[in-house]
Every structure is written in C-alpha cells, then in structure tokens.
Amino acid sequence: MAIELEGGCRVFRIQDGEPLRRGALGVWRQVGRENGTKAISLSALRLAGGSSAAWRNADCDEVLFVVEGEGNVVLGGRRLPIGPRAGVFVRPNETVAVEDPGAAPLALLDSRCPDPGPQFHFAEPGPSLSESARRDLSPVVRFEGQPTERAGDGRWFRVLVDAKAGCEQTTQFVGFIPPGRSPEHFHEYEEVVCILSGHGRFWSGAASHPISAGTGLYLPRRQPHCLENTGSEPLQLYGLFHPSGSPAVRYHPGGSAPPS
Hints:
Low-confidence stretches: 129-134, 256-260
Strand content: over 45%
Number of strands: 24
Number of helices: 0
Distance between the termini: 32 Å
Mean pLDDT: 92
Shape: globular
Helix content: under 10%
Strand order of the largest sheet: 1-2-22-19-24-17-16-15
C-alpha cells in the first residue's frame, strides 16, 4: 500500500498490489493520472524467463528502464540487446516487443508522458509506424556509454534517455547519493524515482519514510524533499521527470522560486 507524505509525495513498493497479467508478463501500475499525477506514469513490468511480450504505445513518449535481467527489445524491425541499467525510448504509436530468452526473469520500469491513462494495449510484434521519424538514433541507451555528471554534495548521475535520444517530454537518469542527508530542495518538474540499491529515508517536509531497493517514489512539482542515505555505500536510484531538463537543477526553500 502506498504511503502518502506531506505535499502529495508518495512512497510505495514497485511490485505492490495485484498486477495486470497477459501471459508471462505482469504489469504493476503505481503512478498515473488516476492517483493525482499531472503528466507522467510509472509501472513495473516483470517478464518470465523464456518468454516474450509486445504492446503498442499510445500517442505519447514511452521510456523503459531495465532493472534486472537480460534480453532483447524489438523496435522498428530492429532487435537490440538490453541489460541492467539500459534505457529504451519508444516513440508515440509504436509497437514494442520484449524478449527474455534466458531462465531468469526480466524486470523493467515503464513511464509514459503525457500519461494516456491506465490502459495497456497488448499487441503482436509488428512494424513501427514511426520508422520514418526515427532517423539514425538508437532507441537503446546504455548506462556504460554515458558520461558522468556532477550535481554537488557528492552526488553524481548519468543521463540515459532525453532529447538527444529523440524524447522531448522527459529525462531519464541513474543517480548516486553518498552517505548522509542532502539539503532539502524542490524541483520545477514532476518526478518518479525507484531505489536500485542501498537504504535510507525519504523526507517530504517534516514527514519521512524508510527506503530500500524496490522502493518507488512520486514527487510533485515544487514539493520540498530530500533523500537521506543511512548506509555506508552510495545509494543508487533511477529517476525520470517532466518537463525534460538536467537532474542537477534544484531550488532551496526560502529562496526565490521561478514564476509558475
């Protein structure tokens, strides 16, 4: 069950609740317009080993992230390998297929912007309607191939899918937070986060809740918050936000906020 904190922030387990199932694929929709978001969604996907699944994106940008497992994604007639910490951009109205040829399951995160609602349109693999718009951009962005960027306070991150990959709506990144508590701050964007490793506490105003691998967060625009890493190793997280921009940009309460 999701925990509501001050200012509309939410804390949840990404595979909590009863999933939507189609064959070997389970879909846990945790964040979307039906529970108060303005633009983005977040669902956890789990595909059993030795199977495949396909669905059709709506008229929006869709971004996938591989949490664990290895397999292939098929987009626009191309079959591309995917593994942990890979980002995948699915264009509007595109059909995407995910294959898991191994024995272990494949776990992914899925976000759509602007969120079209909770419907999930399963499909058979087929040609992409947006192939002519793809140009030479690869839909798969690998963590290992991206530059490291610094955000102050010892934090660092690598951006995966953003405008450089053709996605104009959102920015997707993997970030690392050193031990300790970062200063309270807010953003001019709406954000979803998933803790990949480590443990600590998430603070929204004076309220807080413990976090660990598999914890998901929803952060409304302009709500003051911070993450506290209570471990001895960097806390690793996945983040995606709208509108697109830099994960390094943040504002501190008490200062002058940009106009609405």
